[in-house]
Amino acid sequence: MRRLKPFLTFGVIIAVFMLSGCSNMVVLDPKGPVGEQQKDLILYSIGFMTFILLVVYGLFAFIVYKYRDHKNHKGYDPDNEGSHLLETIWWVIPIIIVIALSIPTVKTIYSLEGPPEETKDQKPLVIHATSVNWKWVFSYPEQDIETVNYLHIPEDRPVLFKLTSADSMASFWIPALGGQKYAMAGMETELYLQADEQGTFEGRNSNFTGEGFTDHTFEVHSLTDDAFDKWADETKSGAPELTKEQYDKLMLPGHVKEMTFSSTHLEWVNHADEADYAVKTRERLGYEPKVPHSKEAKEERKKLKEEKLKEEKQQQESESHGDSHAH
Amino acid sequence: MKWDEFFVTGDPLIYGADVSIALTTAGILFYLTYFKKWKWLWTEWLTTVDHKKLGIMYIVSAVLMLFRGGVDALLMRTQLAVPEAKFLDSQHYNEIFTTHGTIMIIFMAMPFLIGLINVVVPLQIGARDVAYPYLNAVSFWTFFIGAMLFNISFIIGGSPSAGWTSYMPLASNEMSPGPGQNYYLLGLQIAGIGTLLTGINFLVTILKMRAPGMTLFRMPMFTWSSLVTMVIIIFAFPILTVALALMTFDRLFGSHFFTLQGEGMDMLWANLFWLWGHPEVYIVILPAFGMFSEIISTFSRKTLFGYKAMIWSMLLIAGYSFLVWVHHFFTMGSGAVVNSVFSITTMAIGIPTGVKIFNWLFTMYRGKIEFATPMLWSLGFIVNFVIGGVTGVMLAMAAADYQYHNTYFLVSHFHYVLIAGTVFACFAGLVYWYPKMFGYKLNERIGKWVFWLFTIGFNICFFPQYFLGLDGMPRRVYTYSEESGWGPLNMVSTIGGFMMGVAFLILVYNMYYSFRYAKRETHGDAWNGRTLEWSTPSAMPPFYNFAKIPVVKSLDHFWRQKQEGKVEKLTIKDIKPIHMPSNSGVPFIMASFFFIAGFGMVFEWMWMGALGLIGVFGTLIYRSFEYDDGYYVSEEEIIKTEKISN
User: Fold this and answer.
1) Is A305 on the interface with B (CB under 8 A)?
2) Residues of B in contact with A282 (CB under 8 A)
3) CA angle, A114 then A116 then A117, to 5°
4) Which of A229, B4, B117, B247 matches a 20 to 30 Å C-alpha distance to B355?
């Protein structure tokens, strides 16, 4: 037992340390019904897993302690080679556990294919989300507006995301609202999400897409119905129209700031039907992919780094002056 | 390709590596020349077909790769220790996690296990070598050359950076131009040939070369696990070979299997990759299970509990391993039916695995447990692997997986199964069979330090990552913001990572220390073992393994003989000439041609690729006309080696 002590103490310390932070981990603190269902499933499974761990660790501690080689060792039986009863027990119990986990899993899988139960009578808001290395383009076909790298959605209304990609395989994920789904060129996948409260949530691509992957993110603003409608109307009337020329520039790999337009790119291309649009556009614009260790690529990286540093500096300066200019 | 881009430049880390590689190479060349070791190197090692020596070479390469992959890991952990760190830039980080994953799976875990299988399995079944010793040398050298080709990428041309999964279209020419991705394709392709040949070789060896009386159900569990592994290799590796070839065509010859243009299908790559990739996971875990079975039984001084259940559960796992690949991309939108089916098959694979855990526990029940280092690793395996197992079941629940996918929850899960399973087994097996390979044990006291430091470091490193995952930290990001709040747990994780690094260094020191100071074994049974490899009279078996092939009457035959006091002594009457295979330099030369071919194709110098391939076919043709039936070891030589007097 003396040998196991470090393990135990360590386990207790870690457990206390970790569990104290559990309540505010984003996946376990969802802001919508989709994430809520997933959280319930996760907690349900954690219950079973804790049970399994307790059984195994209990048996382990008992057997290793009792049958360690020591002076008063008792019960040695070198030819004890099996027991039908015991073996049946540990074939049957895991089967029962798997069944107990499968039922809610399958139920949730089916339920997540459609809009959330409580709002299924409402017409979902349709948003096309298109990933282009390393930005997100969001088109609202009904409102006929388009945004880049940010989303506005109404609260308490299901949103149907139609996902696709102009190039690499990306994964559309807003952890606070629910699980992710892949966005792939030449494909359209669908994902229902819904926010139950107003607020700003982080969204991102979680599937590795190369050099700019880390900053392949966007912000989600959940508004009241009225505020959303007002924003949509204002955007429609106030924002500039998206030209094909401008959109084609977005096809070049890189990061851009948030953008807003009063028309959508769906008028001339849907990447779900035209997988090679971005590649062809890049060729037409004379873009050539650079070998990562070539001179040109290194110079480009250096330039980007300097720009980023400059930006950070400016931000710091504006923050330190920020108090006096607060609006 | 411009010549000034041939060598990777502009990074102090790379220059440091350049210098250390140059110094090491010079040192080795000097040593070989000064001590006149060239001939020794050629006759004893480069041309050998002895399964024990090939096994040792596999293990030495694997330990070197563990060092390389481990340095990659520590560089990543350093970069992630604090938010917004500037230690590595994105491209560099991407290259490092790509090579870390590829090296650890393909060039560390597999060769380490295949090395131990090479050393142990022929001895366990009472054979004098494998079925095809020559092919075994080809296997080793193609693996080794594949690994070297992959490894030079970081100083010549640049490493691949599309992840070890190399998803298309990211890995295509349009998004990953240059030699990096080609290194991945050709390095794996060449090494894969070796693995497939090993699969065929050991399948035949185990089925056809067992000592008389050793029926299938009298085979030691490690041999059983190797047999099942070989079957998986034979079914899984051709898929990888084809997938890699198709992507190579896409990149080098402009085909459109997986590309964005020409109606290519990127999802097909993901499916093919994981159709191989999931069985691959079991290729690296089943031999581990086999080793733990042997070790737990040996150090509990007790028969394995539920021998037949262990075998059936392994066969079930092998079958299931081909029916779960979709769980690697539940988020691809395959629909509710597909995801439900694959959720259930994946969870079901936990059932036979759970059965094995209980059988190990009850092998110790009513035993007499001795806490030798190999046993500590095995006990550590049970405790830690279960955590990896239950989180695996959690990940199998597709609806929940949408939240875990691509996060540190997943990263932590697969490190809990691959480190606590495979790496612990490699260390346990290394320590356990070390006296069989080198004639002395590794120091036990230092060994226990390594175990505790590594295990505690491992938990400090990876346990926090479950929580980082639940807090939304995606894998493969090269940095994160202060506001994300992921800083403290990442710092903890990094500290754990470095503890594992220190433990590895102590392990290597232990090899040196034991080489200098360990007591040499005087007989073949270092641990009071149960299986035939411990029955050889000398600590290290002679090159022909057994002067007289043993006759097996039961499971754990050697142990029962010892119990009954009936261990047979070798007499002069038993000695007959032994037929052994001849050494050959052809496998090494063939692999060198593979290197030339691979290197040429990496840089798309087709003349060089063609030249290399002509060389490969040349050696094949040479071999076809070579008539060599091996040779006989004379009775006098055997008597001298076995030190029989009367």
Assistant:
1) yes
2) 174
3) 105
4) B117
Among B314, B325, B261, residue whose Cα is nearest residue B292: B314
Structure tokens at A311: 């930006």
A291: number of Cβ within 10 Å: 19
Give bridge partners of residue A261 from the DSSP assignment. Answer: A146
Identify all chain A residues contacting B91, using CB atoms and an 8 Å cutoff: 211, 292, 301
Residues in chain A within 8 Å Cβ distance of B267: 184, 187
| C-alpha angle A46-B400-B404 in degrees, rounded to nearest 5 | 95
- In A, minimum Cα distance to B165 occurs at A208
Placement of tokens 């496998």 in the chain: B587
Which residues of chain A are within 8 Å of residue B162 when distances are taken between CB atoms? 208, 210
Instruction: Give the pLDDT confidence of B538-548 residue by residue, as tens digits.
Output: 999 999 999 99
Picking from B274, B331, B560, B564 by the largest number of A CB atoms within 10 A of its own CB, the best residue to mutate is B331
- Can you give the three-state secondary structure of B493-505, one letter per residue? HHHHHHHHHHHHH
Measured between CB atoms, does A12 come within 8 Å of chain B? no
Within 8 A of B400 by CB-CB distance, chain A residues are 38, 41-42, 45, 105, 108, 179
Distances (CA, A) of B288 to B219, B225, B226, B364, B531: 16, 8, 9, 18, 17
How many Cβ atoms are within 10 Å of A70's Cβ, its own excluded? Answer: 10
- Give the H/E segment covering residue A164: strand A159-165
Contact of B50 with B127, CB cutoff 8 Å = no
Do the chains contact at A292 and B158, CB–CB below 8 Å? yes
**Contact call for A110 and B336, based on CB within 8 A:** yes
Q: Where are the domains of chain A?
A: 5-69+81-111, 124-309
* Residue A290 DSSP class: P
How far apart, in whole angstroms, are the C-alpha atoms of residue B184 and residue B181? 5
> Under a CB-based contact definition with an 8 Å cutoff, are residues B126 and B219 in contact?
no
Q: What is the reported pTM?
A: 0.94
- For every residue of B309-320, DSSP letters joined together read HHHHHHHHHHHH
> How large is the C-alpha radius of gyration of chain A?
27
User: With an 8 Å Cβ cutoff, is A78 touching chain B?
Assistant: yes
Q: Is A308 on the interface with B (CB under 8 A)?
A: no
List chain A pLDDT tens, one digit each, 327 residues: 445 555 455 555 555 555 555 558 999 999 999 999 999 999 999 999 999 999 999 999 999 999 999 888 888 988 888 889 999 999 999 999 999 999 999 999 999 999 998 898 999 999 999 999 999 999 999 999 999 999 999 999 999 999 999 999 999 999 999 999 999 999 999 999 999 999 999 999 999 999 999 999 999 999 999 999 999 999 999 999 999 999 999 999 999 999 999 999 999 999 999 999 999 999 999 998 888 888 888 888 888 888 878 887 887 777 666 544 444
CATH T-level topology, domain A5-69+81-111: Helix Hairpins (1.10.287)
A175 touches chain B (CB under 8 A): yes
Fold assignment, A124-309: Immunoglobulin-like (2.60.40)
Return the HEC string of B256-277.
CCCCCCCCCCHHHHHHHHHHHH
Chain A residues in contact with B390 (beta carbon < 8 A): 49, 52-53
CB pairs under 8 A between A and B: 315
Nearest-Cα residue of chain B relative to residue A57: B383
| CA A4 to mean position of chain CA atoms | 38
Would you say B483 and B415 are in contact if contact means Cβ atoms under 8 Å apart?
no
Q: How far is CA A8 from CA A135, B377, B454, in A?
A: 47, 17, 16
Burial zone of B222 (CB within 10 Å; 0-12 exposed, 13-18 middle, 19+ buried): buried
Contact B479 A214 (CB under 8 A): yes
